[in-house]
From TrEMBL:
One example GO MF annotation: succinate-semialdehyde dehydrogenase (NADP+) activity
Native organism: Streptomyces chartreusis NRRL 3882
Gene Ontology BP, a term: gamma-aminobutyric acid catabolic process
Name of protein: Succinate-semialdehyde dehydrogenase [NADP(+)] GabD
Pfam hit, one: Aldedh
Family of the protein in this entry: Belongs to the aldehyde dehydrogenase family.
Length: 479
């Protein structure tokens, strides 16, 4: 860890917290402290805000091609340092190295994607219908942004927000999760090396999120908030943003339904379930939570899924052959334990897993529950762990109603071989994304986001940059 920055990154310089405070970064596989990083307070946040505000005008005037080239160089540096970044991520977050390497590639692709979008920001020119004025439309950066990222994808969630902000010409303050600050600090160092001007990106690591973020949102100088995290925290931030009418993007919680119809290819369905459930140990907002399986195939699906889940190797993410690393911390594991216990008390049958192993670290085994009572707590809670809960259904209308019976609407998964049914069910699901016969929907080229309490706006894809741009209309009289 000696080469990884541990200070705040403000105005292009590495600095300690103004009061000298630090906070520990733990290894969830052992519980041991990896290192300490600077723990910012409100004074540090104001310094970061000032740096971003001072850099905004010049950065907005920077040529789109120059912004594009910085992103492209950063993309190349990330790829070159895949192993270093993957080991860093596994150390602070726990995911197996193979998954960490996959996230590095995923993260880098956001920079490549938005390097290409930076030079495609367009406007418009036309004569208005009454013939009196010409309309000139231009697009410009929204201004200084506050970006708040979660711990579960510590590198990719940073690039998914930083990429479009840089491409659009916005300056930023990045506030990473306190559990995983190292990936964000390493990313800041890469962007500095890639030529990003001082003050464009500022990274404030802190355990005092409320003290740091609320004054920024209420102060009126931050013009954009992009947040990924829980719905409860997102609702609080929306309220804090209202006073200064801060523009917001919210990627919040999920409670994804996974629908397996009687005509599904069960091989595809089980493969999809393994991805939709076990990506990142189930610690993903896109994770399949509620498995609705047609009664005629439920027993066979459960048997196959339990067999696959039971074969996964649990252990430290740095160890060869490990498929499932630790959960992020003991609090997260305790939540999973409580949800499984509640389901079992209500009559669920454990097909595999379900018992916390002894020893250090925050490990929990891949678990499959069958015959889950619809009233179980895990039916209306984001599990964020390696637990698949299977319920049965008989009719299409019934399962759609049950799938939509949740305040969240991020993603849904549909497995069927019938084209008409595939389209019909997908159109009726109240979600922002659908995986049709696949367990993976995330892609930098696709618009990521949900409906209802799963968020506002979209990240990635051609529309991802729109969240960081404003329109200006210029009326020009026709002479």
């Amino acid at each position: 860890m000696t080469d990884t920055p541990t200070q705040l990154f403000i105005g292009g310089a590495w600095v300690d917290a103004s009061d000298g405070a630090t906070m520990p970064v733990d290894d969830p596989a052992t519980g041991e402290v990896l290192c300490h990083v600077a723990d910012a307070g409100p004074k540090d946040a104001k310094l970061a805000e000032e740096a971003a505000v001072q850099a905004q005008e010049a950065w907005a005037r920077t040529a789109p091609r120059a912004r594009s080239e910085i992103l492209r160089r950063a993309h190349e540096l990330i790829i070159e340092r895949t192993d270093v970044l993957a080991h860093l991520m596994t150390s602070e977050m726990g995911k197996p190295l193979a998954e960490a390497r996959g996230e590095v590639a995923y993260a880098a692709e956001f920079f490549r994607w938005f390097s290409e979008e930076a030079v495609r920001i367009d406007g418009g020119f036309t004569t208005l219908p009454d013939g009196r004025n010409r309309m000139l439309l231009s697009r410009r950066p929204v201004g200084p942004c506050l970006l708040i990222t979660p711990w579960n994808f510590p590198l990719a969630m940073g690039t998914r927000k930083i990429g479009p902000a840089i491409a659009a010409g916005c300056t930023m303050i990045l506030k990473p999760a306190p559990q995983t600050p190292l990936s964000s600090l390493a990313l800041a160092a890469i962007l500095k090396e890639a030529g990003l001007p001082d003050g464009v990106l500022n990274v404030v690591t802190t355990s005092r999120a409320g003290e740091v973020c609320e004054p920024l949102l209420r102060g009126g100088r931050i013009r954009k908030l992009s947040f990924t995290g829980s719905t409860a925290v997102g609702q609080l931030l929306l309220a804090q943003s209202a006073e200064a009418v801060v523009r917001t993007s919210m990627e919040l919680g999920g409670n994804a339904p996974f629908l397996v119809f009687e005509d599904a290819d069960l091989d595809k369905a089980v493969d999809g379930a393994m991805v939709a459930k076990m990506r990142n140990m189930g610690e993903a907002c896109t994770a399949a939570n509620r498995f609705f399986v047609h009664r005629s195939v439920a027993e066979e699906f459960g048997r196959r899924l339990a067999e696959r889940m039971g074969a996964l190797v649990v252990g430290p993410g740095t160890r060869d052959g490990v498929d499932v690393g630790p959960l992020i911390d003991r609090r997260g594991r305790a939540k999973v334990e409580e949800l499984v216990a509640d389901a079992v008390e209500r009559g669920a049958h454990v097909l595999v897993g379900g018992r916390t192993p002894e020893g250090p670290g925050c490990f929990y085994p891949p678990t499959v529950l069958a015959d889950v009572d619809p009233g179980s707590r895990l039916m209306d809670t984001e599990i964020f762990g390696p637990v698949a809960a299977i319920l049965t259904f008989d009719e299409e209308d019934e399962v759609i109603r049950r799938a939509n019976d949740t305040p969240w609407g991020l993603v849904g998964y549909v497995f069927t071989e019938g084209l008409d049914r595939a389209l019909r069910v997908s159109e009726r699901l109240e979600v922002g994304m659908v995986g049709l016969n696949t367990g993976l929907v995330s892609n930098p080229a696709a618009p990521f986001g949900g409906v209802k309490q799963s968020g506002l706006g979209r990240e990635g894809g051609r529309v991802g940059i729109d969240e960081f741009l404003e329109y200006q209309y210029l009326a020009v009289p026709v002479s």
